Amino acid sequence: MEPQKLTEYERRRLENIKKNEEMLASLKVNSRLNDLSAATKRQRAQTKSYKNSPEKKSKTETPIVIRRSLRARGMPPNASTADGLKDGFDETTLKIPRQAHMMPKKSRPVMGTITISDAYIGTEWDKKLIDKILSVSKKSQLSCIGGVKEETDGGFSDLAVGVSENEGTGCPEMKNKLLGSIDVEKLALEPENVARVVPGRIMSVRFFPTADMTTIVVGNKYGNVGFWNVDAEKEDGDGIYVYQPHSAPVSGISLQPFLLSKMFTSCYDGFIRLMDVEKEVFDLVYSSEYAIFSISQRPDDVRSLYFGEGPGELNIWDERAGKSSFSFKLHEDKINTIDFSSENSNIMATSSTDGTASIWDLRKIDSNKLKSLKTISHKRAVYSAYFSPSGSCLATTSVDDIVGIVSGANYEDISMIYHYNQTGRWISTFRAIWGWDDSYIFIGNMRRGVDVLSSISRNIIATLQSEHMSAIPCRFDAHPYKVGMLAGATSGGQVYIWTLD
User: Fold this and answer.
1) Measured distance CA(197)–CA(242) in Å, rounded
2) 24 lies in a domain?
3) CA-based, 20 to 30 A from 102: which of 126, 192, 367, 441?
4) Segment 374-400, tens digit of pLDDT
5) How far apart are CA 234 and CA 3, in angstroms?
6) Cα–Cα distance, 161 to 156 (Å, whole number)
7) Domain extent at residue 120
8) Residue 425 falls within a domain, yes or no?
9) Where are the beta strands (DSSP E) in 71-214?
10) What's the CA gap between 245 and 251, in Å, rounded?
11) pLDDT at residue 87, rounded to an integer
12) Residue 300 belongs to some domain of the structure
């Protein structure tokens, strides 16, 4: 049988194999591999049964770590970094560079108005929520002006709101707010008052400030704003509606009782948005290259916003002018909370990561600087400073495991109460709030409960616990017009509502 003829490709392949073998033979590669294998076997045979201790490296030796950003590697940002807050985010370690104001501005697109329908990501139709807010808002406006209103293209005028710097809110509902001590032992958590409102960690929680509806609004780390209409009928679904107006953690929510159709939200992305239910939009009212960590409004002024921007700046935004009217450097690090005294709306309190909480008089401006009335120092970051309902006391919460109570005519009396405040990386920091009078302070604990502190005895007098709580409540709000109704929010997106038996 004749041998099969090789193709040109097969013939060249055999020639290449022969050349490679000749090259390996000339270099004696195979013999060296055999010698190396034999040496390795001898070394293994001589190895003892215990492990040799590794040689200690010199302390002066510095490891070389090469880091490349996702952008440099040609990769898109992942979910853990695109939202501006990693899952392992620890608020106690977040720092703003002291020279942040000297850093070059970052160029990023400025987003405009977002319609409510475009921002909505819920499963239920949100028309019922919108109609409910509008009806309650109109009723609240009429009650605050004695049934007389003056409408303008932008809503209600200052006359209709009925406010001035010297007259307080001008709203009977606010002036007649119920006060009085309650029996904290009677606060209970019913299973129907538990709901998961948004995905992920809740950063802010607020009750709608009205007695005509029980609705909670929260902001989470992903930029979601969620509503829970607790009074929703069964045929309306679960009463939960979720929107996405922001791209990073929602740092604050501001609502006024006489203008419920408008809600401000601030965000770590440097945006402040106004949710205008009448226009059905999320308007962009302010943008910054720096993060915004807190937001608030004076109880007698719906036209101005006070917010903490970047490394310790307090900015005041005027709606009439459409721009910032004042800016003050109040702290060396970020401002975590801003609050106003109900007794005198010119008195403001701020808390900061620089380890201090300060009380300011807005009437005392000297050379474009605010003068501090009192500064309370902690050993670590201070994450909240809230006035009591009467405005005569201030409660501070710090990561140094202290809840401070400041009182006295000139805020000269300071008491420090020990409370374990180490929440770690996965849970939002604790922020102690006042209840419905100056008697009690509520703060979460790491045992899935709520500690009740007495401002009189200056210690923990009770702990609220329930089998229905599956997570640690860390952010709270007390309903301003329903005594005994307390909302607690968790890092898992749940909201718990305690009520009186």
Assistant:
1) 8
2) no
3) 367
4) 999 999 999 999 999 999 999 999 999
5) 88
6) 7
7) 114-500
8) yes
9) 114-115, 151-152, 155-156, 187-196, 202-207
10) 13
11) 43
12) yes
Alpha-carbon torsion (365, 369, 371, 374), positive or negative: positive
Residue 37 lies in a domain: no
Identify the residue whose tokens are 């032992």: 185
Q: Which residues in the chain come in under a pLDDT of 70?
A: 1-5, 29-30, 36-110, 141-181, 235
- Residue 198's alpha-carbon distances to 101, 222, 262, in angstroms, are 34, 9, 21
| Side-by-side strand order, sheet with 494-500 | 187-196, 494-500, 486-489, 475-478
Say which amino acid occupies 343: E
The count of other CB atoms within 10 Å of the CB of residue 482 is 16
Taking only the tens place, the pLDDT of each residue in 340-378 is 999 999 999 999 999 999 999 999 888 778 889 999 999
DSSP 24: H
Structure tokens at 90: 């620890």
Three-class SS state of 10: helix
SS3 250: strand
Helix (H) or strand (E) holding 55: none
Q: Which two tokens stand for residue 198?
A: 């948004």
CATH number at residue 468: 2.130.10.10
> Phi, psi (5° rounding) for residue 449?
-140, 180
Q: Domain count of the chain?
A: 1
CA atoms within a 13 Å half-sphere pointing along the CA-CB vector of 337:
29
Distance CA 162, CA 150 (A): 10
The DSSP bridge partners found for residue 486 are 478, 498
